[in-house]
Amino acid sequence: MINKPPPPTDQTPVGNIFGWRVSLIGLVLIVALAALAAYRHYSLSVPVGFDDPLEQEGSKEYHQEKAARERAAQDSIRSKRQQ
Fold it and tell me: For the segment 21-35, what is each residue's pLDDT rounded down to a tens digit?
């Protein structure tokens, strides 16, 4: 015999399946991470945006110096291995 589904009611179950405590904990976590990102942005003077760092004034020299330092470090490691 096939069971018939219960007749639909006028009240549909609407609500938070996880409960309000978990939702509030999630909200607090999101706000805390956003506050941390904002604090680090202002304290470290990190620019916001997706601009190419090589197009910004003064940063091209920094990246060239960084690449030169990395190449020098790799060369020193190679010379130590060869000895």
Answer: 999 999 999 999 999
